[in-house]
Specification:
Elements lengths: L20 E12 L24 E6 L4 E9 L5 E11 L2 E9 L12 E5 L2 E2 L12 E10 L2 E4 L2 E5 L2 E9 L7 E6 L6 E5 L4 E4 L7 E6 L2 E6 L2 E11 L2 E12 L4 E2 L1 E2 L5 E2 L1 E7 L10 E8 L2 E6 L3 E4 L4 E4 L13 E3 L2 E3 L5 E2 L13 E2 L2 E2 L2 H4 L22 H7 L4 H4 L19 H9 L5 E2 L3 H10 L1 E7 L13 E7 L4 H10 L3 E2 L22 E3 L1 H9 L3 E5 L3 E2 L6 E2 L3 E8 L5 E7 L6 E7 L11 E3 L2
Parallel strand pairs: 1-9, 1-10, 7-15, 11-19, 11-22, 33-36
Antiparallel strand pairs: 1-4, 2-3, 2-5, 3-4, 5-8, 6-13, 8-9, 8-10, 11-16, 12-15, 12-17, 13-14, 17-18, 18-22, 20-21, 23-24, 24-43, 25-26, 25-29, 27-28, 30-31, 32-43, 33-34, 34-37, 35-36, 38-39, 40-41, 41-42
């Protein structure tokens, strides 16, 4: 081995000695101390293999900090005790105290002066990377006689601490990346003066340790002192942190965790992230559906209307309904029960347009100020003694025939009130004034939706049906973020629902009898449903019933929902379902009168 040489200033003298500076041979036996205080948080145990390796060198300095020379390892490779030899610059003869320093593998000891700054702000985070800036030191008496310097065996003491940590990410997939370690009182610079004075500082106002390309198993050099440790990394756009409580890190210790089987591993660091903020309660739920070139989500509940306030609103929950119709007023009397809140309407009752008769808009004032468009029918006897037959009644109320039937040709049901002033979505959107575009699905939209996404009957078992206490829970039609039976079953079971093996592959809009459309084939509690809803996976249309045009003619055992599609002069298309009766019904159906009261479930465009 070639011993590295270093010159020193001519005034370097040994106390009590005189003479010229000369180079002498030095041989010394040096050992690295074992860890003085092996530790885990709350436990003891663990060690590091402190052995000399080929190429290790030691700096020798005088008590005043003058670098005298460098000694190189000549024997003892792979052992904890080794022999170092080299030349040092001395003056005179006698005995003095010298300092011995081991600076690790990354420091260029040939070029160091009287002060060395070891920077721990950037580390590899691996076991193999620990020796890079490892640091040991000791002082010992040295005797100089003739051309030889001798010393008793020197035991070097480590001035840093080591820690092994294991980052654990619950519910997150972290394959590695940049980890930043911070903490109150943390230092990342070790300042070594060759006169033996050693101190720690921070490289900036707030010290950090950065580990690039880190893995979950981290080895770090920690400088002595009292500090907590906070580990920070990112996954995608989320920041994950984990903090260990404050402790006093001691020079020479190696902190890690003892496993139950007697082996050792990293101290567990639970990495967590701040939960996504709970969004403001919106008016849309469920997945984003894409049909016929449109992207939308369903509104959070069925549409309702407060007649007294002349205000549209959405009911509280997806399963909510009132099964309440409006009333008619003519010739000084009301027909039907006067309700304050209703959720069953005649086709196209938006509140923006009123009845037409003889091509003239009948304003509320001409009827009575309490009258508003969402009443689902009107008497044949109009004001001022005018009368129309049932056909004309269906044609002209609630909205003008020509407008509702815009684009209608023959059997073509592709057209209707979607996006027009008669669509309920137009009225709700103008009232909310939130920039959202709301509309009612056309019959063709429902057909495309049914062909792409999974629909089934379902029961929410712990919600009572407000119209029928004999029913075992609340029935409805469920639309899932799934495309087939297998996906739908797996999704439902993931959230705790009971799913029958009789569940069909999917429902169809052709025909009327469907043996698989049964509300009992999917059962779940309201809590399970809310979890499914919070995940954005489900839309539920309650079996809200419907009303005919005659007084008190409520039907409460099925679901009647208007589409935006107008049919003949007084017909239109509904989405109709009933999985509790015989025959089972799941279809798009022609409603023979626009005066029937049916439910409305709007959708909100996704841009």
């Amino acid at each position: 081995m070639v011993a590295g040489m270093s010159s020193c200033s001519s005034d370097a003298t040994m106390p009590g000695a005189t003479g010229e500076t000369r180079s002498v041979d030095m041989q010394v036996t040096v050992s690295k101390s074992a860890d003085m205080s092996r530790a885990v948080i709350g436990e003891n145990g663990g060690d590091l293999d402190c052995r000399w390796t080929n190429g290790d060198r030691i700096v020798v300095s005088s008590a005043d900090g003058t670098k005298l020379g460098i000694l190189s390892l000549t024997s003892g490779e792979g052992e904890s005790v080794g022999t170092f030899e080299g030349k040092i610059e001395v003056t005179g003869e006698g005995t003095a105290t010298y300092n011995f320093f081991y600076f690790g593998t990354a420091t260029d000891i040939e070029s160091i002066g009287s002060t060395v700054a070891l920077d721990y702000s950037s580390q590899e985070g691996t076991l193999a990377g620990l020796p890079a800036n490892d640091f040991f030191s000791a002082s010992a008496n040295v005797s100089i006689a003739y051309e030889i310097a001798t010393a008793e065996s020197v035991v070097l003491e480590r001035a840093t601490a080591f820690g092994r940590f294991n980052l654990q990410f619950e519910g997150a997939d972290w394959s590695g990346g940049t980890v930043t370690v911070s903490g109150s009182g943390l230092n990342n610079l070790l300042n070594v003066k060759l006169n033996g004075n050693i101190s720690t500082t921070a490289s900036s106002e707030t010290a950090t340790i950065t580990v690039d390309n880190a893995t979950a198993d981290l080895w770090l050099t920690i400088l002595p002192g009292e500090t907590d440790l906070t580990f920070t990394t990112t996954i995608g756009e989320k920041t994950y942190t984990g903090t260990l409580p404050s402790r006093t890190w001691k020079a020479g210790e190696y902190v890690r965790s003892e496993n139950a089987d007697g082996t050792f591993g990293g101290v567990t660091v639970e990495m967590t992230t701040t939960p996504d903020p709970i969004p403001e309660p919106g008016d849309a739920v469920g997945p984003v559906f894409e049909v016929n070139g449109k992207k939308f989500r369903f509104t959070k509940a069925n549409l309702a209307y407060n007649v007294n306030e002349k205000r549209w609103y959405l009911l509280d929950e997806q399963w909510s309904f009132l099964c309440k119709k409006g009333w008619a007023y003519a010739n000084g009397s009301y027909v039907g029960t006067k309700e304050s809140d209703i959720d069953l309407y005649g086709f196209g009752c938006t509140g923006l347009h009123f009845s037409y008769y003889n091509d003239r808009l009948q304003t509320p004032t001409q009827f009575e100020e309490d009258i508003n468009a969402p009443e689902y029918f009107i008497q044949k006897i109009l004001y001022s003694g005018q009368s129309i037959n049932a056909t004309d009644q269906g044609r002209y109320y609630p909205t003008q025939n020509a407008t509702c039937n815009q684009g209608y040709t023959g059997g073509n049901l592709e057209f209707g009130i979607q996006g027009m002033a008669m669509d309920w979505g137009t009225a709700y959107g103008q009232q909310e004034n939130n920039g959202g575009n709301y509309y009612t699905l056309l019959s063709s939209d429902w057909s495309d939706l049914q062909s792409k996404y999974f629909m089934t009957g379902a029961t929410i078992t712990d919600i009572a049906n407000p119209n029928n206490s004999n029913k075992a829970g609340l029935y409805g039609c469920m639309i899932l973020d799934a495309t087939n039976k297998t996906e739908a079953s797996a999704l439902l079971k993931e959230y705790g629902a009971t799913v029958s093996t009789k569940l069909s592959d999917n429902l169809s809009f052709t025909g009327t009898n469907y043996q698989y459309f049964d509300y009992t084939y999917v059962k779940l509690t309201s809590e399970q449903f809310k979890a499914l809803e919070a995940a954005g996976k489900v839309v539920f249309l309650p079996e809200a019933g419907h009303t005919a045009v005659t007084t008190n003619s409520y039907t409460k055992t099925d679901g009647y929902y208007w589409t935006a599609t107008a049919g003949q002069a007084y017909t239109s298309t509904i989405f109709r379902f009933d999985g509790n009766e015989t025959p089972k019904v799941f279809k798009l159906d022609t409603q023979s009168s626009r005066m029937f009261g049916c439910a409305v479930r709007l959708v909100k465009e996704v841009k």
